[in-house]
Design a protein that fits this description.
The complex is a heterodimer of chains A (1038) and B (390).
Chain A lengths: L9 E3 L5 E3 L2 E6 L2 H5 L2 H14 L6 E6 L11 E4 L3 E3 L7 H10 L9 E3 L4 E3 L6 H4 L17 H6 L4 H9 L2 H11 L11 H10 L6 E6 L8 H8 L1 H15 L3 E7 L3 H16 L15 E7 L8 H8 L23 E5 H13 L1 H5 L9 E8 L5 E6 L4 H8 L9 E6 L5 E4 L9 H7 L7 E6 L4 H15 L5 H4 L1 H13 L6 H16 L3 H5 L2 H20 L14 H5 L6 H9 L3 H11 L3 H7 L3 H5 L2 H4 L5 H10 L18 E5 L3 H12 L3 E5 L8 H4 L8 H13 L3 E3 L10 H6 L2 E6 L5 E2 L15 H10 L9 E5 L3 H12 L4 E6 L10 H9 L3 E4 L1 E7 L6 E12 L5 E5 L5 E4 L2 E4 L3 E2 L9 E2 L3 E2 L13 E3 L2 H4 L4 H21 L36 H7 L11 H8 L5 H8 L6
Parallel strand pairs in A: 3-4, 9-10, 9-12, 10-11, 13-17, 18-19, 18-21, 19-20, 21-34, 23-24, 23-30, 24-25
Antiparallel strand pairs in A: 1-2, 3-5, 5-6, 7-8, 13-14, 15-16, 15-17, 22-31, 26-27, 27-28, 27-29, 32-33
Helix pairs in contact in A: 2-3, 6-10, 6-13, 7-8, 7-10, 9-10, 9-11, 10-13, 17-19, 17-22, 19-20, 20-22, 24-25, 24-29, 24-40, 26-29, 29-40, 30-38, 34-35, 35-36
Chain B lengths: L2 E5 L2 E5 L5 H7 L23 E4 L5 E3 L10 E3 L3 H16 L15 H8 L24 E3 L9 H9 L5 E4 L6 E4 L15 H5 L5 E3 L12 E6 L8 E7 L2 E7 L12 H5 L14 E3 L5 H10 L3 E4 L4 E2 L14 E3 L2 H19 L6 E3 L5 H15 L4 E3 L4
Parallel strand pairs in B: 1-5, 17-18
Antiparallel strand pairs in B: 1-2, 3-4, 3-5, 6-9, 7-8, 10-11, 11-12, 13-16, 14-15, 14-16
Classes of the chains: A alpha/beta (1038), B alpha+beta (390).
Chain lengths: 1038, 390
């Protein structure tokens, strides 16, 4: 296929003289670009050319859709294929004067790719088109859809002539069958076989019907073909008419496509004038004509029997098959119904041959697929890709990935009746059979991408609502079933779901699938079921906890920051209190759900800030900094946590004095239990003490906050190790009625490579622990290589730098994009001159007794794994050696305990049920890193809150699970005018300079605090989503 | 050549073009239906008749699927039964729970199916329609859309039996609603009130307005009769309770008309028990002998009529008020004597051709034959005609 459009066309000048046009400007006049004033632009270009006396020398051509609608209107200047985007009528002058007259490209109108930060000059240099293969859309952007000469110049109507003069109808059908073309309406039935049925039917007259009732929300594939290349559809329909022996054709086009209908009408008139329609077409004895029937906007009329009913002037409702339309269709006569794209492929297949088509795409699904790519991708629009391309390539290469570096959550194919696939299905090839096997469908070609902020209940509800509204109402399963299902989803989304609802959805789905008359009813449950299959946990979070994990269900999300915080800390409340200078109350609000305000004020990754709505306007609120300031005001004031229930005289043991264990101990003590915490190390704090270096978390606030827990009446006993100094049995014997194992994950994973026992291999966890214990390793003038990309790796590297290492390197097997470490740490490490080496992994530790270096192998990123990150794949023969004295593995930690009776998952974490309980050991619970693997302080605190609630519930009722920690809500009034803060910006945080850090040569805190005025002003930038929510749920404002 | 198929393990022969439903019913295998009616076209809307057919994907509706050679059908498969039960759950979830006072209690297809499939009425299962009850001023047809199952039998009856096309569906999805014309009143939508829609309604959504609260199926006795309005000879069942006609229902086995009836046959029965009905002959006083009037009225065998008050005066009363045009309620002999004397007088003075006779469509063939004989033989004229020719 010729993509360059270098066919020589002639244009008519005003004097009526034809002369060759060497230079031409294509202006997209698809609906998308027309709605952004491309017709005015075309006019402006003509006027500019006139003004420059170029009319007649340069042709301005209206063309069909380029697909990159997001950047429309599109203008391409030929020759040279210079691709201009978002061109306004006022830009016409620049294009004519700078480009056409002076030969200088108009830089500001070229496409700037945000992902690669490059400028693409030519059409095919744009990433969007890189993996596309435009067969069906090959004329779009090249020909003038209203000028049949353009179509003829591109071998138009050749296929029809060949069919009429050289082929029998049977041969046409055979050719189409051989090509393997499958119906592009969605079901993928072999087109040639379908034609064969209609051919064999005995009755006469027969009809050909083109289904152009493209009703999927966001899909515009058929429209673009009709608008950009209407003659290809007309030619395909005529060929089909010849093949089945039909007398007339109908194009059923939705009335919402006025431009497509207008261009089709022009095309039909032109085809009649040229003798491609009418009596005795091209001198043959085949007579055929086509008329257009405008649809009235019912989605169900895309179903062939409903479509036929609609053409007949009846209510658009489906009828049971058999009889199939091939036997009894329009007015009871044999009829063939195909999608627009199916017909448009046919002339190309006849022209290029079945073999050519078969060699495109996959064996089972030859050809290309046209999609409307929408949702959370960087580049949206109309795309045509070869069948068999992976979802990944569509989303990341064509679509340019997910905006703002977010993670992909799911991709919906097949429109509102299709299904969604999660991240780990990204390598699924896109073809009829593979998608169906994966639980999604090809459908007619909508592809909607959802990122991690999408709530899947909401997602399912959206599609269901559409299908529900579009049910024709004929049969009860669809008419009533879809309403019932929608009611359930709405209930769930507003936090009023009940556990039976999940089964009820499945019951309704089965009934609808088995009982509905047509595909609309049968497939309505599909999106819901596929979401339920891949994201059932999200449903349960809504049902059991009235929580929307993606913080998007309006009735459930008081504020995104509160939802994003694992511990549910009421950020808007304490921000509001700090704004008023009420620091003590603000701190009390924080402590309601998280006792470690000073600690989290320093080390929290601040999930709240990632989702802050203010961040969508300018910058998110500096919530963590506010927290630190507020907590530090009470540095010297010891807090005694309030007692919330009378003493119970029940003993509970917590093993492990990390953030999880201490929080659980605090909550249980507040509920009146006698709590003892057993700690293996000399000091409490767990990883806060022994994992986080003092330059991030100074010891003074850390121990101050641990002392608060003691004041709640918790007995913390150090230097006692489970399995050595005491056992679960001994604790039970001592009368502890519940035991919570909050052991953390302290055992470093080994690299699993040769030479790991050599002297000089020094695990990151061990290094950090040694430093915390005061036995500083001597690293001066040592060359240190740290392996890993998490916080431990960063902390070890930055500590080694502080201990005087000569140079410090970090090797990581993926890229910075995939690093799990928090951004501040990576930034800090870079400031400190630590060198990063990405896409490398150690394969051998070099050296005799002691480490002399490490052999590394380069990696490339391959398929997606379950974590949604691309799997590193070794590049054979790429090994190289990196000399070093100290090799620091920091690739993760596991839980370890000297007690084999406790169930583990893959020897890494405890295997506990939803209620944190060990199935076979009643009264023993586990929480925190010990069950999640290494996480953050705030996640451990959240676990501590939850496990305490679970233990209390079990001790008082004997029931396991079913209780969820709901943080207390505080409604704080807003006492100032938010309007005054519309222009305010987040303060830039200050830190010790790297020179100061090294000059002081110690572990001094790097980040510096803001003063009170800055903090109070910052708090006033908060948009107070919580107050808006109060209005939404109909409660009075404070 | 009949087609041989297997239904529930039983070999069944059926003609080509027969549906699974017909083939099954021919051999006594019952498949539940709701929207199907043998008089009407099949639309496969209610899905109650779904059956499993080997080698076919999903379930098939027995009412629309033609039989084919070697087809193996299971009407009681687990999927089919579960689906039917599901359909009933769905219908009940948008149906009132008032069988107690419903007019069609005991004569309702939905009720029977719900009983057979043991479906409970859900207390709360989401939105239910609350359409106004009896919103249409049509004097004969009562509508309660809350009970409508959208089976479209009324639509098809109106379209296919009566050719009036009054009913149709409007709106979409859960809001789909049975409407007359463009959501108008029935009479504005060209309804001729034949009540065919009511006759085919399987539930209590459409009912005969005149029969509301007069007695339900189990409490009436049905008496087959021939319509007295015209000579077509339609049969129907008079529904009688306490010796009063409370309703007319179609008799599916009626040889002439089947389920079809016109507005007069179905709703024109109220004259039977009407207080205004004339059941005794009334003769003007001037045609009778004055002495006889005085005597008969005095002894109470005749009575003086008060036309203005649509009643006769009590026995013995009113003699003084008689004027020549006053109606006297007489016995039949006296009245017929007046007529026969008048006929004889006319024939004698002016000949037979002075008569012209018009026969009524309400008469039977036999009565019309006698009428013809009487005209030609007794009165001696050929001037006879029939109201149907007017």
């Amino acid at each position: 296929m010729n993509m360059r459009g270098d066919v020589t066309l002639s244009v008519e000048t005003e004097e009526g003289v034809e002369r060759p046009a060497h230079r031409w400007v294509a202006v997209c006049t698809g609906t998308g670009c027309v709605s952004s004033a491309s017709e005015e632009l075309r006019q402006a270009l003509r006027e500019e050319l006139d003004r420059s006396n170029l009319n007649g020398h340069v042709e301005v051509r209206r063309t069909g859709c380029f697909g990159f609608c997001e950047r429309g209107p599109i203008v391409v200047v030929h020759p040279g294929e210079t691709f201009y985007t978002q061109v306004k009528p006022r830009d016409a002058k620049a294009i004519v004067e700078e480009h056409i007259l002076d030969g200088q490209k108009v830089e500001r109108l070229l496409y700037h790719d945000p992902a690669s930060d490059t400028i693409a000059e030519k059409w095919h240099e744009i990433g969007f088109y890189g993996k596309q293969k435009r067969i069906l859309l090959s004329n779009c952007g090249i020909v003038d859809p209203e000028n049949v000469d353009h179509y003829l110049a591109r071998e138009g109507y050749q296929a029809l002539r060949t069919a009429l003069t050289e082929m029998t109808p049977e041969q046409v059908i055979e050719e189409v069958t051989d090509s393997g073309l499958r119906g592009r309406g969605g079901a993928g039935f072999p087109t040639g076989v379908k034609w064969g049925f209609a051919r064999k039917a005995q009755n006469w007259p027969k009809y050909v019907i083109c289904n152009a009732d493209e009703g999927d929300p966001g899909a515009f594939m058929d429209r673009s073909v009709l608008e950009g290349d209407p003659h290809s559809v007309v030619e395909g329909i005529i060929i089909a008419g010849y093949a089945i022996g039909a007398e007339a054709g109908f194009i059923y086009c939705r009335a919402e496509y006025p431009l497509a209908i207008m261009r089709l009408e022009i095309a039909l008139t032109q085809a009649r004038e040229l003798g491609f329609l009418g009596d005795n077409i091209q001198g043959s004895d085949f007579s055929f004509d086509i008329s257009i029937k405008e649809g009235a906007g019912a989605f169900v009329c895309g179903e062939e029997t409903a479509l036929i009913a609609s053409i007949q002037g009846e209510r658009g409702q489906p009828w049971p098959r058999p009889p199939y339309p091939a036997v009894s269709g329009l007015w009871g006569q044999p009829s063939n119904v195909n999608n627009v794209k199916s017909y448009a492929y046919v002339p190309r297949i006849l022209r290029m041959g079945a073999e050519w088509f078969k060699n495109l795409g996959t064996e089972g699904s030859p050809g290309t697929a046209v999609f409307a790519l929408t949702g959370m991708v960087n580049r949206t629009g109309l795309i045509e890709v070869p069948m068999g391309i992976t979802l990944h390539d569509i989303i990341y290469d064509v679509g340019g990935g997910i905006p703002q570096g977010k993670r992909l959550k799911a991709v919906q194919t097949g429109g509102p009746l299709g299904g969604c696939l999660p991240e780990d299905y990204l390598d699924t090839p896109v073809d009829f059979d593979s998608l169906r096997a994966a639980g999604a469908v090809m459908g007619s070609g909508g592809m909607i991408v959802a990122d991690e902020t999408t709530c899947m209940v909401e997602f399912a509800k959206y599609f269901l609502k559409f299908a529900c509204d579009e049910s024709c109402g004929k049969c009860p399963p669809c008419r009533i079933g879809s309403t019932r299902m929608l009611e359930i989803l709405e209930r769930i989304a507003s936090g009023k779901g009940i556990p039976e609802d999940i089964d009820r959805i499945r019951h309704l789905a089965k009934g609808m699938q088995n009982g509905s008359l047509c595909a609309l009813g049968q497939l309505t449950p599909s999106p819901v079921l596929s979401v339920l299959r891949h994201f059932e946990d999200e449903f349960w979070a809504h049902v059991s906890e009235a929580r929307c994990p993606s913080a998007s269900c309006q009735m459930l999300v008081r504020a995104p920051c509160v939802s994003a915080c694992p511990a549910g800390v009421d950020a808007p409340a304490y921000l509001a209190l700090v704004a008023q200078g009420r620091y003590a109350e603000a701190l009390a609000v924080h402590r309601d759900s998280n006792p470690f305000a000073m600690i989290c004020g320093r080390v929290c990754p601040a999930f709240c800030e990632d989702v802050c709505r203010r961040g969508q306007i300018d910058e998110s609120i500096a919530i963590r900094q506010v927290k630190r300031f507020m907590a530090d005001q009470y540095y010297a004031e010891p807090w005694t946590p309030p007692q919330l229930a009378p003493p119970k005289n029940i003993k509970v043991a917590i093993v492990g004095a990390g953030p999880c264990g201490l929080t659980a101990a605090l909550r249980l003590a507040q509920q009146g239990y006698e709590v003892t915490v057993f700690e293996r190390m000399p000091q409490p704090g767990g990883m806060m003490t022994y994992g986080i270096p003092a330059y991030r978390l100074p010891r003074q606030p850390l121990f101050a906050e641990i002392d608060h827990i003691r004041r709640a009446g918790v007995d913390i006993r150090c230097n006692l190790e489970l399995g050595t100094d005491f056992t679960i049995k001994s604790l039970k014997d001592e009368g502890y009625q519940a035991i919570v194992l909050a052991l953390g994950a302290h055992r470093s994973r080994s690299l699993g490579i040769h030479g790991e026992q050599k002297k000089g291999v020094y695990h990151g966890v061990q290094m950090l622990r040694d430093i915390a214990l005061g036995s500083l390793p001597d690293l001066s003038n040592k060359r240190v290589v740290v392996v890993g990309g998490g916080d431990t790796a960063m902390d070890a590297a930055r500590s080694a730098w502080r201990l005087g290492a000569k140079d410090v390197h970090i090797v990581y097997r993926r890229t910075q994009h995939e690093m799990p470490a928090i951004k501040e740490e990576i930034k800090g490490a870079k400031e400190e001159g630590i060198q990063f080496h990405f896409l490398v992994t150690p394969v051998t530790v070099l050296g005799n007794d002691a480490v002399s270096g490490v052999r590394l192998q380069r990696q490339s990123l391959g398929d997606f794994d379950r974590s949604g990150r691309r799997r590193p794949m070794p590049i054979p023969g790429s090994e190289f050696d990196m000399p070093c004295d100290i090799l620091v593995p920091a690739i993760g930690q596991v839980t370890w305990v000297n007690d084999e009776s406790l169930a583990m998952i893959r020897k890494a974490t405890f295997d506990v049920g939803k209620a944190f309980n060990f199935d076979n050991t009643p009264g023993v619970f586990a929480a925190g890193d010990a069950i999640t693997g290494p996480a953050t302080v705030v996640q451990a605190v959240a676990h501590g809150n939850q496990v305490a609630l679970t233990v209390d519930h079990w001790l008082t009722t004997g029931d396991m699970g079913g209780v969820y920690y709901h943080p207390k809500r505080h409604d704080i009034p807003q006492l100032f005018d938010l309007e005054e803060y519309t222009e305010a910006h987040r303060p830039v945080s200050r830190a010790l300079s790297p020179q100061d850090r090294l000059a002081r040569h110690d572990f001094a805190e790097v980040e510096m605090e803001f003063d009170a005025q800055i903090i109070q002003e910052e708090c006033k930038r908060c948009l107070r989503c919580d107050l808006e929510w109060l209005e939404r749920i109909g409660e009075p404002l404070p | 050549m009949p087609i041989v198929l297997t239904i529930n393990g039983q070999k069944v022969a059926a003609e080509e073009g027969t549906t699974i439903l017909e083939a099954a019913r021919d051999v006594g295998i019952h498949i539940p239906t709701l929207c199907h009616h043998p008089d009407l076209s099949n639309v496969g809307a209610c899905r109650m008749c779904v059956v499993s057919v080997e080698k076919q994907r999903g379930l098939q509706t027995a009412c629309t699927t033609p039989v084919s050679e070697g087809m193996v059908v299971d009407t009681q498969s687990e999927d089919a039964r579960a689906t039917r039960k599901f359909l009933l759950e769905m219908l009940l979830s948008d149906h009132p729970n008032d069988c107690m006072t419903c007019e069609v209690n005991g004569d309702c297809l939905l009720q029977d199916l719900v009983y057979d499939y043991d479906v409970a009425w859900p207390e709360y299962n989401g939105l239910r329609h609350t359409y106004p009850i009896d919103p249409d001023p049509n004097p004969f047809i009562f509508i309660d859309r809350n009970k409508c199952v959208l089976c479209s039998r009324c639509i098809r009856a109106c379209q296919e039996m009566q050719n009036r096309d009054v009913w149709s569906f409007a709106y979409r999805g859960f809001e789909t609603k049975l409407v007359a014309g463009a959501d108008q009143f029935l009479l504005d939508a060209n309804c001729e009130s034949c009540g065919q829609c009511v006759a085919y309604c399987p539930v209590g959504a459409l009912y005969d307005k005149m029969s509301l609260k007069t007695g339900r199926a189990p409490s009436v006795s049905k008496i087959r009769t021939t319509c007295s309005y015209c000579g077509v000879g339609c049969n129907f069942d008079l529904n009688v309770r306490d010796n009063r006609i409370v309703r007319v229902t179609s008799a599916p086995d009626a040889p002439v008309n089947g389920m079809a009836l016109c507005v007069k046959g179905r709703y024109g029965y109220d004259y039977v028990h009407h207080p205004d009905r004339v059941t005794q002959p009334l003769v003007r006083a001037k045609w009778l002998d004055a002495k006889q009037i005085r005597q008969r009225v005095a002894d109470g065998t005749w009575m003086v009529a008060n036309v203005a008050e649509k009643r006769v005066q009590p026995a013995g009363n009113g003699i003084d008020s008689i004027v020549p045009d006053t109606f006297i309620q007489t016995d039949w002999n006296a009245a017929l004597d007046v007529v026969s004397h008048k006929f004889a007088e006319v024939k004698k003075s002016m000949g037979g051709d002075a008569f012209a006779l018009l026969a009524s469509a309400k008469c039977t063939n036999e009565e019309n034959y006698l009428f013809n004989k009487f005209t030609r033989q007794v009165l001696g004229t050929n001037s006879i005609d029939h109201c149907a020719r007017l």
